[in-house]
Amino acid sequence: MSSVAIRPTFVDAEIESIVVHASLPESTERLLRSTPKLAERLDADRDGLHMARSTLARATNLGRRRESAKVEAGPAYQARREEIIAAAGHVFLEKGYPATSFKDIAEAIGMDRASLYYYFESKQDLFRVATGKAVARNVKDAERIARSDGKPAAKIAEIIAKLLESLTEADYPYMFIFLQEDVNQITAKPDDPWAREFTALTRRYERAITSIIQEGVSRGDFAIAGPPHVLTKTMIGMANWTVRWYRPEGKLTGAELARIFAHTFLHGVVTKGGGSLPQRMR
Fold first, then answer.
1. pLDDT tens sequence across 51-85
2. What's the rounded Cα separation, in Å, for the pair 277 and 258?
């Protein structure tokens, strides 16, 4: 049997033994070294193992420093993280999340990639921090508004205003990028805790809006043509779709868009004398 046929099975298994045990039985070592190419492979993989261990040690130490700095949360450290998040947002927007590397982000902020690891574990970690803060704040705003004493129509208008402010100003461009990207590209596993957390936050947001719509129906303020949760998704979808066409340099501000959306959602577009739905749709 040729050495080429052996290498993918026997040799790789023995190299795995190096990784686990850092040594080989003497008889196996002699056998491997009896073939020059295999001996070269063994030495190369041993060198690679030592390099990997060294890298792992440095990464582990850096990870401990990063976690310690996050716990202490000094003003300078937090300010630098915010600068990095802001710079990375423009890179993500230009290149797209999948095509953006940690090196791209480091160059945008003007630091080397190794230093960037002191602030964030990965581009995924950075992206999650930025979007997580925005989504959590939007949910808290919606729940606070839902509990307030205002009229349902005013509550709906305020939630739309807050959402458009988040999309176009406060959390731009991260909320745009998040809505544009496939979440499966941002999380490696479908049962990822981050993905589960975002699903839970989305449901809380929708429940807050649905409760306002239900309140409006109960008060006689709203007359709806279907289930409240369908109106909830309609309202959110109308706002979220701005990621497909909105441009910061455009003529309309986020606040102006919010006014248009709220008026259209609450009052529609047809005047009293403008007719009604076709018979088949009633």
1. 544 444 444 555 565 556 555 557 888 899 999 99
2. 26
C-alpha to C-alpha distance for 155 and 262, rounded to whole angstroms: 10
Q: Which domain holds residue 58?
A: 3-72
Q: What is the CATH number of the domain that holds 141?
A: 1.10.357.10
From the list 255, 148, 265, the residue with the least C-alpha distance to 208 is 148
56 and 84 both lie in a single domain: no
- Which of 128, 138, 233 shows the shortest CA–CA distance to 187? 128
209 exposure class (CB count in 10 Å sphere: 0-12, 13-18, 19+): buried
Helices (H), the chain: 3-6, 12-21, 26-33, 36-72, 75-95, 102-109, 113-116, 123-147, 152-165, 174-180, 183-186, 193-219, 228-240, 254-267
Say yes or no: 128 and 171 in one domain. yes
Asked if residue 278 is part of any domain, the answer here is no
Asked if residues 102 and 116 have their Cβ atoms less than 8 Å apart, the reply is: yes
Single pTM value for the model: 0.70
Q: Is residue 242 situated within a structural domain?
A: yes
Question: Domains in the chain: how many in total?
Answer: 3
Q: What is the maximum alpha-carbon separation in the chain?
A: 95
* Same-domain pairing of 109 and 129: no
CB 171 within 8 A of CB 134: yes
Domain boundary among 116, 146, 173: 116
End of a domain among 53, 72, 91?
Answer: 72
> What is the rounded distance in angstroms from the CA atom of residue 141 to the CA atom of residue 257?
19
Q: What is the pLDDT of residues 8-38, one digit of tens each?
A: 333 344 334 434 444 445 555 555 455 555 5
Q: How far apart are CA 89 and CA 256, in angstroms?
A: 24
